[in-house]
Each structure stands twice: as structure tokens, then as C-alpha cells.
């Protein structure tokens, strides 16, 4: 499936891996890119030196295009932005802020800039500042989320901007990809399904939590603080929601989740850790290789879009 995004990024399939902190390491990013999608290193709150090491490791593993996600609230965002230029990273995606201050530097270096947006207003602003495309991410996503659903957000963003739109949130199979294309998207970004891939370095306990999840197993915490986060329910989410309902302070809530993602990803503590995952966790039934995921989903979507296969 050739689209404006596959042409822009030089990738085979219109499938982009979400830039997930602690999860989007060089192992996963290289595997997704090698499979024909676009792998993304998730910088999260990591130091610039770590990001440089990850970029170099991806380059050693594949000659395919890849990207880096910059979490703009990272204290070392300025240094990471420069590392992206120094290392000649092909693509950068951004979240948790406005990347405007880095746009000129990245553009002059030939870096394709694709911000994640959760509203039409931010999408339009990103287009004005020179973004090459935007990722419209719906509330179905795992981790930090907005409020509008993918089904409602994507077509409104598509209508509001002239640059290509990538749909994210609630997509886990060829049906979701085909639906996103019908809404006007030119590619999709997926996270949860790649967390449960063979190449993902997350703990087996985390992967098993996703594979065993049901449709109602994700919960959103942090709505009262203005920083909602979607995770698979466990002891931590239960306690957080209890404290939140009792009017706990931001400091108390932050103390509960401090280091929570690392606990789940690295230590395998899926009881007290933050098991970030999207609402489609209930659709992920097995751990597969990135190659199987990317090629299988693309083939399924192609069949649906060509009308050669219908789901009943």
C-alpha cells in the first residue's frame, strides 16, 4: 500500500510503531523498521547520551528508515534535539508539548517532523510551523491520552490540514487500518500490539498481561490532575482511583506512580507497576514477531480495502 506517508518516509508499509518510553528501545525499533514499517525509539525521560546510544544501535541493526520520539517535557529535550541532528535521524515524532522551537533546526537537517496531536487546533498549529505530517491520537491509546476518540478525531484533523495524517489509538488489526484509511488517514501508528511482540524487551509478565486482557480491562487514571493515563487495571490503578476520588493531592498521586512504568517493563511487577496499554489490548491474543505483525496486518488491510475480503 503506497501512500503519501510511505513515500514521505521511504517505508514499505504505512505502519508506524508508537514511541513508547522504556519500550521503544533499539531492539524493537530496528525490528519494526526491518519488517517494512517505521520503528521509533522512545526517548521518554531518558538522557541524551542514552538516546544517542540507541540511535547508533539501530543503525547497526538495519539500514531502513527509523525515527525518535521526543517527549518535550524531558529536561534534556534540547540536547536530544541536537543529537537527532548530529546522528542524521530520518524522522522525529514529538509529544507532551510544542516542538516549534526545534522545527527550523530539524528541517535544515532534513529531518521529517511528525508531532502527535490530540486536537484540531494543535494539528493546525503544527502545520503552520512546518510539520511534515501529524499523528492524530485518540483516547483509546495506551499511556498518556487526550479525550477525543480516534473515530471522531481523525476525520476532523484530516479536514483541517493539508499535510498527511496518521491515525493512532484503538488499532490492532487490518480492520482498524482499513477503517483509518476510510477516515482519511495515510498511515497508522500502533503501540500496544508491538509491546507484545517477540522483539519487545518488556517483561514476560507485561506481555502476558496484554495477551490475557479483556475488552474492559483498561482504566484511565489522572483525569483530576489533567494528565490522564490509560493502563491495564491492577492494584496500582485501583489505589490511584481510590485516592483520586478522595481528593488526594497531586504529590500523593505522583508518589504512587513514581517509576511505575519501569517497574512493569523491567522488573515485571504488573501488580504495583504501570502496565500502559490501549483499549485494543483485548484483541492481542498472542506474542508474534514484528515481521509477522507488520506483514500480516498490511495484507489483511489490503484485502479489505480491495474488497476481496469481508468480515461478518
Task: Tell me what the structure shows.
It contains 14 helices and 11 strands. The mean pLDDT is 93. An 8-stranded parallel beta sheet has the order 1-9-8-6-5-4-3-2. With 312 residues, it is α/β, with parallel strands linked by helices.
Task: Output the radius of gyration.
Answer: 18 Å
**SS-based structural class?**
alpha/beta
Number of strands: 11
Strand % is: 5-15%
Binned, the helix content reads 40-55%
Across the major sheet, the strand order is 1-9-8-6-5-4-3-2
From N to C, what is the helix and strand string? HEHEHEHEHEHEEHEHEHHEEHHHH
Q: How widely separated are the two ends?
A: 24 Å
Unreliably modeled segments: none
Overall geometric form: globular
Please outline the major beta sheet. 8 strands, parallel
Report the total helices. 14
Give the averaged pLDDT, no decimals: 93
Keywords: Flavoprotein, FMN, Oxidoreductase
Organism: Candidatus Anaerobutyricum stercoripullorum
Pfam family, one: NMO
GO molecular function, one term: nitronate monooxygenase activity
Concise description?
The protein is of the alpha/beta class and 312 residues long. The protein contains 14 helices and eleven strands.
